[in-house]
Write a structure and sequence with these properties.
By secondary structure, the protein is an alpha/beta fold. The chain is built from 6 helices and 7 strands; from the N terminus they run αβββαββββαααα.
Length: about 210
């Protein structure tokens, strides 16, 4: 989903590079403001048939983050499992970013108490809209995309994929709109993974160097 050039053209928001990632500053005048920023991780946290630990910051969207991890677990055919742990001990940390932090989604590898971990930052309300389900859909898909990077998945150039990068172009409104049209309530998100066959194949064949 990331793609600084594409996002800049669509959102007209200044972008601040941080290492290999890009963080977008929010332009309140933009009608549709989204940036799925990420760090292309060079290491993966998981091997086949492994259980990963996670911690999700409290908040009204914590359920969406849990559903994103559950989607990856189900897509793996049960080989990948997740268990909650205290923040200091977890491998994947999902944190809600504020508008002031100027980010919509980003995955950062870190060292935490002597072990390798990934911080996943998600801004829970990345656009101004009266459509609550569209807002929830974008927050969920951000969690799904960025947690995919935490698992070692890479960007693709296929518009159907959750791991698609906006740097390849495409209709951003439609990217989220097609998922929104599947929903009648927030609970429907749990029943709609948002993953393409290619996403699932990449998950099942991801490299393991953890």
């Amino acid at each position: 989903m990331c793609g600084a050039g594409r996002i800049k053209r669509v959102l007209k928001a200044p972008l601040t590079p941080i290492g290999d990632s890009v963080v977008a500053r929010w332009n309140r005048r933009s009608v549709f403001v989204v940036c799925f920023c990420c760090l292309e991780l060079t290491a993966t946290l998981v091997a086949q048939a492994e259980t990963l630990s996670f911690w999700i910051a409290p908040g009204p969207d914590s359920q969406l983050a849990e559903w994103a991890l559950s989607a990856w677990s189900e897509a793996s055919g049960g080989k990948l499992k997740f268990k909650p742990l205290a923040r200091a001990d977890a491998q994947i940390l999902i944190v809600w970013a504020s508008a002031e932090e100027g980010m919509y989604g980003e995955a950062r590898p870190i060292q935490l108490n002597g072990h390798r971990a990934v911080e996943v930052f998600v801004r829970p309300a990345p656009l101004e809209t009266s459509d609550v389900l569209l807002r929830d859909a974008i927050a969920y898909l951000t969690c799904l995309h960025e947690s995919g990077h935490a698992l070692g998945l890479q960007h693709t150039d296929q518009f159907a994929d959750i791991m698609y990068s906006f740097q390849f172009g495409g209709d951003i409104r439609e990217y989220f709109g097609r998922y929104r049209r599947r929903l009648r309530s927030r609970a429907d998100i749990q029943k709609n993974w948002g993953l393409s066959p290619a996403d699932i194949e990449q998950l099942q064949h991801r490299p393991s160097i953890w």
